[in-house]
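Write out the 3D structure for:
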Amino acid sequence: MKFTSLKVALCVVVLVLHTMPANAGDAKTTPAASLSWPGERIDTWRGYTRHIFTIDGCKAWVVEPKKALPGNPWTWCMEFPDAFTDRTGVPQLLEKGFHHLHIEVGNTFGCPAALKHFDAFYTAITAKGLAPKGTLIGISRGGLYAYNWASQNPDKVACIYGDAPVCDFKSWPGGKGKGTGSAGDWKALITCYGFKDEAEALAWTKNPVDTLKPLAKAGIPLIHVVGDADTGVPAAENTAIVEERYKALKGEITVFHKPKGGHHPHGLDDPKPVVDLILRHASQSKP
């Protein structure tokens, strides 16, 4: 009788183990993100499900992969999320299992008010189960958005991908160097930042080129793609300065040059090198 009971018990154990998911006992397994927001609207973005909702008074969205990678990694395009997307590697990263994010804060040049919206968005997406650190994508003026937020939140960033990024607003839109600048955007920037005049804007010491130390200290890798013939956002006034200063701080930065490339098109003909770097940096990033 005892033998029979023992045999039954062993059979039950075997049955349970056989029917458990292969990763059920893996402590590193991360639950899928629970993506739903009050009043959200669902559509598709490049063949993937997109959740559109409102955060902090701003339209925001999250695109979910068909099968998320463990840890629920993400990319966040800070501005121009539909520009040259195939060339920036975003679809490839979605296919690999990354989520993709955006929040609309308007043409605000990464000003302090915009950063507060970013804070609210980050809180919202991580509360839903997305990774505590992600990849920021700064396209053109989006470089101001990405670097300004990252310098204040280095513990929330796995890496930064800047594509022809503005790293000093004196260069663009200010046009105080060799670049063409943009008079209208320069005036708008002064208003967005609350500067009393141009002189105060020019004296600002918190451009991305000035605030690299916390990023280097946190070990955040940087990836830049630049056109060497870019006259709008000259690499010499932006990426080159970041590269020199970041290396001096012992930070890791990879720069892809397009020798005859202008400001457009963004990205690379084959974005695989950028995708591979983001995958590596995201996998090596510690919570």
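The CA atoms of residues 172 and 181 lie 5 Å apart.
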